[in-house]
Amino acid sequence: MYYKVLRVKINRAKVTGKNLYYEGSVTLPSSLIRDLGIIPGEAVLCVNLNNGARFESYIIEGEKDGEVILNGGAARLGEIGDELLLLFFSYLREEEIKDHKPKIVRLDDRNRPCGR
User: Fold this and answer.
1) What does the UniProt function comment say about this protein (predicted)?
2) What is the pTM assigned to this prediction?
């Protein structure tokens, strides 16, 4: 049996841009993607702390440090300056769960990691 467990949690990602006329996705800085082991195209559950919206999308790499952009339909679910929780999950077997520890990072006002 497999269980869906939290793999990565990004706390307080601040929306820096919106692009409604895009296929759809959430843009994150490539450095953050690399450091947390996120795969471009990977599914992400987004929780907007400002308005309570919860939506699923996928990740694409951004070109600038600090950018967090809502693209496509997701652009309707947040405003620039809103804070997001970004949740990434894995499916693990029961025997793998005991050794599993999710990566949890909090971002500062410039979307730079500042601790757990």
Assistant:
1) Catalyzes the pyruvoyl-dependent decarboxylation of aspartate to produce beta-alanine.
2) 0.94
